[in-house]
């Protein structure tokens, strides 16, 4: 593990919020989890639903974040954003959670290098489809580093996005590396259409709808 990941717990992370909810996405969907949302993101996806995390927040010592997370009745933690890896101190934060015995996952845009992340962390890596406006930011050099404990998530807004995703899956043998999750943009792509496309193509992927948006109309803090 890198020296950066071993940094002391007095390091600060710019934090937007901490909340307890059900995981709404990917393989952990439905599991009670604590979400640690960091501030800042270098991307501007057209359908982003966490724009409030782009700016603001407050610098909080890692030790204080661990103490707050420990008040919730679960050992599952999801570090999300924004883009968590935009902050260098995200790495020691992730390692600190692992050291404390948490089951840790990281939600990342896929535009930044995932190799420095503690190997105990499950990395949920986005591939940005063309309709996001950020597909050119996909860091394809991340793909060879994927492990079977990681996941690829692709959010789709159209049939063209689906065809792009299918090509990426086949070209890079993504489903042979880790689970691949396809999700419709809420209000832009009919979930039934996406489900039928997956079945018609016989893609070995996981279909998902964002659970938290079905349960709570205001997804912030849920």
What distinguishing features does this structure have?
222 residues; 5 helices; alpha/beta; globular; TIM Barrel
Number of helices: 5
Q: How many strands in all? A: 9
> In terms of structural class, how would the helical and strand content be classed?
alpha/beta
Name of the CATH superfamily? Aldolase class I
* CATH topology tier name: TIM Barrel
Termini Cα gap: 33 Å
How many separate domains make up the residues?
Answer: 1
Mean pLDDT over the residues: 92
Describe the SSE topology.
Elements: E1 12-22, E2 32-38, E3 58-61, H1 62-69, E4 76-80, H2 90-99, E5 103-108, E6 122-126, E7 151-156, H3 159-171, E8 179-184, H4 191-201, E9 206-207, H5 211-215
Parallel strand pairs: 2-4, 4-5, 5-6, 6-7, 7-8, 8-9
Antiparallel strand pairs: 1-2, 1-3
Question: Can you characterise this structure?
Answer:
With 222 residues, the protein is of the alpha/beta class. It has one domain (4-41, 51-215): Aldolase class I (TIM Barrel, Alpha-Beta Barrel), CATH 3.20.20.70. Helices cover 21% and strands 23% of the residues. It is built from five helices and nine strands. It has helices at 62-69, 90-99, 159-171, 191-201, 211-215, and strands at 12-22, 32-38, 58-61, 76-80, 103-108, 122-126, 151-156, 179-184, 206-207. A nine-stranded mixed sheet has the order 3-1-2-4-5-6-7-8-9.
Concise summary:
With 222 residues, the chain is α/β, with parallel strands linked by helices. It has helices at residues 62-69, 90-99, 159-171, 191-201, 211-215, and strands at residues 12-22, 32-38, 58-61, 76-80, 103-108, 122-126, 151-156, 179-184, 206-207.
